Amino acid sequence: MNVAVAVTGNDAMAHALKQINPDVCAAYPITPQTDLMQRFSEFVSDGEIDTELILVESEHSAMSACIGAAAAGGRVATATSGPGLALMWEMLYVASGMRLPIVMPVVNRALSAPLNIHCDHSDAMGARDSGWIQLWSENAQEAYDNLIQAFRIAEHPDIRLPVMVCMDGFIISHSICRMEYIADDAVKNFVGWFKEKNALLDIENPVSYGPLILTDQYHEYKKIQSDAMERVFRVTTDVAAEFEKISGRKYDLFETYRMEDAETSLIVLNSAAGTSKDVVDEARDRGIKVGLLKPRLFRPFPHKQIGKILQHLKAVCVLDRSDSFGAYGPLFTEIAASLYNYGGKPRLLNRIYGLGGRDFLPKDALLAIEAVVAAAEGKTDLALKEYLSIRG
Amino acid sequence: MKSRGIKELGAGPVITFPGNSLSVKTGSWRSSRPVSLKENCIDCLFCWLYCPDMAVNVAGGKMQGFNYDYCKGCGICALECPGKKGRKAIAMQEEEKI
What we know:
Chain A has helices at 9-20, 34-45, 59-72, 82-97, 122-126, 140-155, 184-191, 218-230, 232-247, 272-285, 303-310, 330-340, 362-376; strands at 3-8, 24-27, 52-55, 76-77, 80-81, 103-108, 133-137, 163-168, 176-181, 208-209, 254-257, 264-267, 290-295, 297-299, 315-320, 347-352, 385-387. By secondary structure, chain A is α/β, with parallel strands linked by helices. Chain A folds into 2 domains: 3-201 and 232-247, Thiamin diphosphate (ThDP)-binding fold, Pyr/PP domains (Rossmann fold, 3-Layer(aba) Sandwich); 254-387, 3-Layer(aba) Sandwich (Rossmann fold), CATH 3.40.50. In chain A, the strands form 4 sheets. A 6-stranded mixed sheet of chain A has the order 11-13-12-15-16-17, sandwiched between helices. In chain A, helix 6 links the parallel strand 7 (133-137) and strand 8. In chain A, helix 1 runs parallel beside helix 6 (140-155), helix 3 (59-72) packs parallel to helix 4 (82-97) and helix 10 crosses helix 13 (362-376). The longest helix of chain A is centred in the first third of the chain and has 16 residues, at 82-97. Chain B has one domain: 2-Layer Sandwich (Alpha-Beta Plaits), CATH 3.30.70. Chain B has a two-stranded antiparallel sheet. Chain B is elongated and about 60 Å long. Helices cover 10% and strands 21% of the residues of chain B. Chain B is an alpha+beta fold. Chain B is built from 2 helices and 5 strands. The chains are: A alpha/beta, B alpha+beta. The interface between A and B is medium-sized, with 23 and 13 residues. Strand 10 of chain A pairs antiparallel with strand 1 of chain B.
């Protein structure tokens, strides 16, 4: 039976991992993820699950151990945050390049310097080209739901790629909210038995991982990996349809909010979408035709589908919680790429918000709406890219 | 080994047929080659033992020269060779001078 609970985002992710009971988990603590793995390690210590929990000396080692365990033929999970993800960077590419379906919650946190432990998307955005699938989550419910679905997507025989499930540090990871846990049996049946492929422990069929692939074949292996990413759209949609049957909750590649007759739109990831929806409602009450689009799948990015939705709009404001210094925010560039090949071209604005955990308040969402409305009305002196609510 | 296209390659770069290093001839990497000077050889087989590949041919407990299909020219055999009365039984020669 599904039960309503009041838990933090970290509780919810740890509970999903407990229900899935992976074969191996290698992890290293880092705020704000620490508490997620701490809870998970309690389940292991209390004998509630039989995961082999490996305590390692760094995140580079955590991902290395996960890669070894996945190559051995196990279902593998870990979790990290901010600089921890940065330290994994080299090994992230090994996991995806070897096509190992590792699943990893990423509790989004800023990167140093200055040293900051709070919410920011620079960590996951820095890993966006690593070949990992990325699912982003607005709240604890979505993080829990995405994590369960992530195993099905990662392990699908047409995919076999690692998945990151992103959730906002502190704002979601440490805040208690009401959500629903799915019954243990339903989760177990949904995720199913792990089917290993080319397992090192299958001694009847010996294999070698990590060979040198030179100029004559590397290019081909990367094309095969790129083709697998293209199949993720279909598999994510299929998995979501099945997930709806056990949860009653509907997921797509992205969420649209009040977009039916919208003339302008905000585009925003994760928790800030929640605040923005309230402000969109208020603007709608005042007759402003603004909507919101929140990507769920950031890698691969559904350019085509999002382009179709946005092409008729007059203006779009993309909110980024990370910057690509000297360029536009990472979400902005994807939205621009989504639109360029369609006939209608709304004006695009980029607003950087909430770096290092700065609160994203309704007044910030309102500033973004005012800017996008001004752009739609033809105001020409608007900054293309700007930091929101900066202290002068 | 013949270069394979994307339809022939598996999903991940995993070797599923053991012993395939035989089909990958690495001798072309070599810039200098070990040359056997049999008159100084005491058949201690240090060269065979130290070779990081399997590029030293041995038969009946005797050193039989090198397999240049696989020898990368690292020179470890020449370095380790004790030779006879201080005279090495393996000399390294630059490929371009051969």
